Amino acid sequence: MKAFVVCGSPRLEGNTQNLLEVVCDSLNKKNIETELVLLHDKEIKPCIACEKCKETRDRTCATKNDDFNSILEKMIKADAFIIGSPVYFGSATSQTTSLLHRAGYVARANDNFFAGKVGAPVVVARRSGQNFTYAQLLFFFTISDMIVPGSTYWNIAFGKKKGEVTHDEEGIKTVQHFAENTADLLFKLKA
User: Fold this and answer.
1) Domain range holding 21?
2) pLDDT digits (tens, 9 = 90+) for 125-180
3) Taking the model in full, what pTM does it have?
4) Residue 182 maps to which CATH number?
5) Sign of dihedral through CA atoms 99, 102, 105, 106?
């Protein structure tokens, strides 16, 4: 089984990437293969609501001159999809929301292909806004008819400077437990 993990931070080796690496390590320990993709060097244009995905029904977006379709293909093939974002002005980054808007639009135009998959968000905040951002991203998973595993708290952690998130012991334990629950859920669904 495989989990596809996306880091929506524009910063390389930042706190969101650090936290998602903890998630990947925890999933790997439970025998779940992971692939972490960083959006910092990817171009994901926003959805323009052209509705061509409804016409073609080929599980792709008509906007072909960016990195979206190659990422969407990996989202479709994975058993679980996890996305992380830092908090920017009380919400997810534009890279993150552009990916989710387009993925959601294409999925709904193509028999809602995310339905029944496992997935959840992970959020990093400097000080606040994490609840808004977590809820914002969570809406994607629930409207996509996905199964969202829980943890002992929301999948959030705190950090400002690179690496600070690794000092948030409760945040680290929360995402480790989330990853363990994700793995357990995947095995139960495949049984």
Assistant:
1) 2-190
2) 999 999 999 999 999 999 999 999 999 999 999 999 999 999 999 999 999 999 99
3) 0.97
4) 3.40.50.360
5) negative
